[in-house]
Amino acid sequence: MNTLPKLTPIVSPWMEDIIANKPLLEELIAEYGSPVNIINPKSMAANYGSFLSTLTDFGLSHGVFFARKANKCRAFAEQAAALGMGVDTASLQEYVQCLEMGIDPSRLIVTAAVKNAELIRQAVENGSTIILDNQDECVQVQAIAHRLGKQALVGFRLSGFQFGDEKQYSRFGFDLEDFLPFATEALTGSDTFGNLAYQGLHFHLNRYSTQERGMALGQCLDLASQLKKAGLDTKFIDIGGGFLMNYLQDQSQWEGFREALEKAMLNEIPPITFGNQGLGLFVHQGKIEGSLGVYPFWNDRPQGKFLNEVLSHRHHGGQRVGDLAASQKIEIRMEPGRSLLDQTGMTVARVAFRKRDSRGDWLVGLEMNMTQMLSGSADFLLDPFLISEEENAEEEVGVYFTGAYCLERDILLKRKVALSHLPEVGDLVAFVNTAGYMMHFFESSAHLFPLAANLVYQEEAGAKAQVHHFRQEVE
Ligand SMILES: *Cc1c(COP(=O)(O)O)cnc(C)c1O
Predict the structure, then answer these.
(1) In whole angstroms, what is the distance from residue 49 CA to residue 55 CA?
(2) Closest by alpha carbon to 17, among 390, 470, 467?
(3) Please, is 300 exposed, middle or buried when counting C-beta atoms within 10 Å of its C-beta (0-12, 13-18, 19+)?
(4) How far is the CA of 337 from the centre of ligand 1 (A)?
């Protein structure tokens, strides 16, 4: 067999302890079913610390709001608040649950893409900042705030930033060019929106270009100066989420994977993905084209480093945007989701069967389905861990993991994964670092499969011997 490229994930000690404890995992799966998600919210602290150190280096007043939507478990929102963060909420349910946890409404922001009347009413009543996306929302929030006799604290989401020759498209937000005339006319020139209290600007961009983020921040700073002339004082600029995290240990493996994928697609080596899928790459006239449609699972600028690059962008080649914001006393806010969940969760499933398909490939059926570990990108490129009794020094084997949905495409990882030996029925497979979006953002209950249990890992304080306590998470 040709050797399959490996993608070795970074694994924190708490995960290693669990992976090494097969009896414990068997107990959990016997009790809760397969798969189980195991989360460790305490591990958020290091990620938050990384952002904080960059923000304080710049001397910025700041607000970090954990994007609640990156994981459903309430324990993460609780932990975010305990660490001193705010929470970015994207639905009435997320918002109300945070209130019920006792999080101060001034530390909650509402960025929901669609805001129903009750969400708006609660946010206005409690004094949480609402990020407005369009004029219809302004009208609705105005009406509700007027009825309540309150001022609604509002920020405005912007898009359409200019990056060189390209004006970046987004379906979200007000167009940057339209916003100044709108704000001067509607927010200050009349009392149409007399109950909207302008607080600041917001953007959340796709792609992982720190330069684009820096440019967008620069364009918001310019806009803030113009708004000031119109009498609108910008208290904050919220630069959204999408800060990178790094999943993998080794850059050369990452590069090796891509090389192998290209070779496989050109039929120079046997396929390394199911059906020889290109994950965004394709072959055209004998050449590889397209772009790899996966998250940059390996990168060298996670968390605070990424933020530092954004804030270090030189505005029109001059001052750093972070310094400009600091000197203009504008608070920098951000809403990381995934990157705050780095090393905070894993998913473990039980092997149901092994078989060879008609192509001669090994398929390993797991008691889970594709929605229980689904990446928004083309694949989740981390090697899983096989947890099994016996390592008979058998031959390495390449397998595809398949799921329980009756769909041909329920292939859990598109990659063929190299295992030290063929698993036995009843062995376990652990996928690490799945808390950010992977474990249940897209989870569904087709076939009436119950949703996976979410268990909170708690270390015994000060205990030498590892004691694990698990509390089942209520969503
Ligand atoms: C999804 C989202 C975030 C969080 O993005 P991450 O990639 O998880 O950091 C923040 N803000 C808004 C408006 C979002 O839609």
Answers:
(1) 10
(2) 467
(3) exposed
(4) 6
